[in-house]
Specification:
By secondary structure, the protein is an alpha+beta fold. Helices cover about 30% and strands about 20% of the residues. It has helices at about 1-20, 95-105, 130-135, 265-275, 285-290, 300-340, 370-395, 400-410; strands spanning about 105-110, 115-125, 125-130, 140-145, 150-160, 165, 190-195, 205-215, 220-225, 235-240, 245-250, 260-265, 340, 365. It has a six-stranded antiparallel β-barrel. A six-stranded antiparallel barrel has the order 7-8-9-12-11-10.
Length: about 425
């Protein structure tokens, strides 16, 4: 009889612990059966107290709801169509010299009676370059990396964007090409390569970073410190994965400034290839000169989109923080009722200890395993949402310092999450 009563008591304790954390039943909990004492009987496992109906904290933590994507409401300037969708590129493991040798066969030198520039194949029969390279010519000479030449026809020019499209007849289906990405989504500090024929020296490669992305008179320019010289015009500015993000076009003279060069964002070329024209009122050179002389802003639209993305990031983090606050209360009650031992260390939120192998120096009390699993699942949901929001903000070009300060403001910046 005594053994049966003991078994009944342990079962009641386990059921009470699970129901308190899950809050599955809406009916009032039945009184817990009394446990018959016996000599030398070990102390019962700790059990969570019944939820106080007057307590401010909810009995169950609300599910972590999906949050709005961090994107700018402002349309991209200079085109009526959105920028091409580009999947986030993983860091390229391809050696730099292998990447260059793969790209160079897609780059050609363009020769006219009055100029030498660069172009690159985007289809086996289609080449992109600058309008100021082809000028008013209807045809141009192409010189490939192996020295062979052919004739290309100028089919489309856009002086306001400084872009031109060329086609070749009898195209080789095996002709290497360079895929198009997006200059508007380029990030400051991103590594880039410029390929072309500076001063007529074909098959030349220079390397640098994206210094800024600027909107000048309705044209998006990718600013870089990669060396750009006469003859580079019309060549591709590619990222580390070999995707074109711009068409090199402008370089400030060394007597005026060092490492100040610009490429037309490839987004404009993608629009032109698709038959969507959106010429600017003046050439990029004229607008950029005016902006550098104080006659206009070269960053207004880009900065506005970044600020808007930062505001959305702030709002989303505030929503996640509400779930984290509810979990704070759950964690305190879990430690009081279901954890035996010490939690080492100091954390902005106590449950961050779950992600530090050295912190949890005790053990979960018998019968509280399901409750511990629930706490861990809720913590993982908050962590994953913070990671997702931070990545979307990064892709929207919100500065790392801004993202870090926002996470810290809501006590959701934890090194153990490797953000």
């Amino acid at each position: 009889m005594t053994n049966a009563l003991k078994a009944l008591g342990v079962l009641a304790l386990t059921v009470a612990a699970v129901l308190w954390f899950y809050g599955r039943s809406s009916a009032p909990a039945a009184p817990r059966p009394a446990v018959v004492s016996a000599p030398a009987r070990p102390a019962p496992a700790p059990t969570p107290p019944p939820a106080d109906p007057d307590a401010d904290a909810p009995r169950t933590m609300p599910a972590v709801v999906p949050l709005p994507a961090i994107t700018s409401d402002a349309p991209a300037t200079g085109t009526n169509a959105p920028a091409p969708a580009v999947a986030p590129a993983a860091a390229s493991a391809e050696p730099l010299e292998t990447l260059v040798s793969r790209l160079l066969p897609a780059v050609v030198r363009i020769e006219t009676a009055g100029a030498i520039g660069t172009g690159f194949f985007v289809k086996p029969d289609t080449i992109l370059t600058n309008a100021h390279v082809v000028q008013a010519n209807g045809t141009v000479t192409l010189r490939r990396a192996d020295g062979t030449t052919s004739i290309a026809r100028v089919v489309t020019t856009s002086p306001g964007l400084d872009l031109a499209i060329l086609t070749v007849t009898g195209a080789d289906a095996t002709q290497p090409t360079i895929p198009l990405g997006s200059g508007r989504s380029a990030r400051q500090g991103q590594e880039v390569l410029a390929l072309g024929s500076p001063l007529g020296l074909q098959n030349t490669v220079t390397r640098g970073i994206v210094s800024a992305v600027r909107d000048v008179g309705g044209v998006t320019l990718v600013q870089t410190d990669a060396a750009i010289n006469p003859g580079n015009s019309g060549g591709p500015l590619v990222d580390r994965a070999g995707v074109a993000i711009g068409i090199t076009s402008l370089g400030v003279r060394s007597a005026v400034a060092q490492g100040l060069s610009f490429a037309i964002a490839i987004d404009h070329a993608a629009d032109l290839l698709a038959g969507r024209r959106s010429d600017a009122s003046a050439t990029p050179l004229a607008n950029l000169t005016q902006a550098m002389q104080g006659g206009g802003s070269a960053t207004t639209d880009v900065d506005a989109r970044r600020v808007r993305a930062g505001e959305l990031f702030e709002q989303a983090m505030a929503a996640v923080a509400q779930h984290a606050d509810a979990l704070d209360d759950y964690w305190k009650r879990f430690l009081a009722s279901c954890y035996q031992g010490r939690v080492a260390g100091t954390f902005d939120r106590g449950w961050f200890a779950l992600y530090d192998a050295r912190a949890m120096q005790g053990a979960v009390a018998p019968g509280c395993g399901p409750a511990f699993d629930e706490v861990r699942q809720r913590a993982d949901a908050v962590r994953d949402e913070v990671r997702s929001l931070d990545e979307r903000a990064r892709q929207a070009d919100v500065y790392p310092g801004t993202r870090r300060d926002t996470r810290r403001r809501y006590r959701l910046d934890f090194a153990g999450w490797a953000l």
